[in-house]
Design brief:
- The chain is an alpha/beta fold.
- The strands form 3 sheets. Strands 1, 2, 5, 6, 7, 8, 9, 11, 12, 13 and 14 form an 11-stranded mixed sheet that branches. Strands 3-4 form a two-stranded antiparallel sheet. The chain has a two-stranded antiparallel sheet with strand order 10-15.
- The structure holds zinc ion (ZN).
- Zinc ion binds next to loops.
Length: 286
């Protein structure tokens, strides 16, 4: 089993980057180690890649660390395993990404949203990494946290800029994500009543627990959400390229990967001026 390296940046790939051979297929990327499986109190992780671009080292895990052996629901979820590794690695900045459906009628497929807020509709996802470790008998610090400024403005700004340079038709620098439990998609009435009527812009299945765990651990988090389809019942029921998870994904995975690498290139992993890490504190309750 691999030792966890000390790395300050992490990229959590999603349905946007599957099959893109991220990060090894991209110019300027140096692979330091590949296929790294780590032991955690929650079980073994999916394989990580340890890589570097323009002097910025990062850890990468495909598809939120989910595979046939590791699910994204409690107990022992992919999120718990992944963020245990990021915590031990000393990660300070986390970028996530996923495809999403639109619930705002102004959005079209291939538009990118860099969200600035979210509403969590999941039911089976972990909420507090340290409490879960405590429940497994580990003596760990415990934190409470606020979700003011849930995504990092500095990381988000750099993602907006890098996404604007790789060919997406439109890039939105704010938006509210509705997070669905899945894995099924939504009905037309769910899209209308649960998301659209509440002012939610996009619906996805990632973002939780990443946004919770990053905040709990004092890390900055931001995400690239790529609209792959109209929410059910909105605009048009046909999906571009027949299925969003094949032709569409194949078309846009490389630009998404380039945008994420562009953001890494300009990132200062020691810059705390955004203030994200100030919104948690040692708990007196947990
Ligand atoms: Zn931040």
């Amino acid at each position: 089993m691999a030792d966890i390296p000390q790395v300050k940046i992490a990229v959590l790939g999603g349905s946007t980057t599957i099959g893109a051979n991220f990060p090894r297929a991209y110019e300027g990327v140096n692979i330091i180690a590949d296929g790294l499986v780590f032991d955690t109190p929650f079980g073994q992780t999916a394989p990580f890649t340890h890589a570097e671009v323009d002097g910025k080292e990062f850890l990468y895990a495909d598809f939120h660390g989910i595979n046939q052996q590791v699910r994204n629901t409690e107990p022992n979820s992919s999120g718990e395993r992944i963020f245990y590794v990021l915590w031990k690695a000393g990660v300070r900045k986390v970028i996530g990404t996923a495809l999403c459906g639109s619930t705002n009628r102004l959005l079209d497929p291939a538009d990118v949203v860099i969200p600035d807020d979210f509403v969590d509709f999941t039911t089976k996802r972990p909420q507090m990494l340290m409490v879960n470790l405590q429940n497994l008998g580990h003596d760990v610090p415990r934190y409470s946290y606020r979700l003011y400024q849930p995504t990092c403005p500095t990381l988000s700004d750099s993602l907006v800029e890098s996404c604007q340079g790789v060919g997406f038709p439109r890039v939105f620098k704010r938006g509210i994500v509705g997070v669905a439990e899945g894995p099924r998609l939504e009905s037309p009435s769910e899209i209308r009543l649960r998301y659209q009527n509440l002012g939610i812009d996009i619906v996805t299945m990632n973002f939780v627990p990443e946004v919770f765990f990053a905040r709990e651990l004092g890390m900055c988090y931001a995400a690239v959400e790529l609209v792959s389809n109209y929410g059910e019942g909105l605009i048009d029921h046909r999906w571009e390229g027949n299925t969003a998870f094949r032709d569409f994904q194949k078309k846009w995975s490389a630009p998404t990967s380039e945008a994420i690498l562009g953001s890494l290139r300009v990132m200062d992993p020691d810059d705390d001026s955004c203030g994200c890490s100030a919104y948690r504190w040692e708990s007196i309750l947990l």
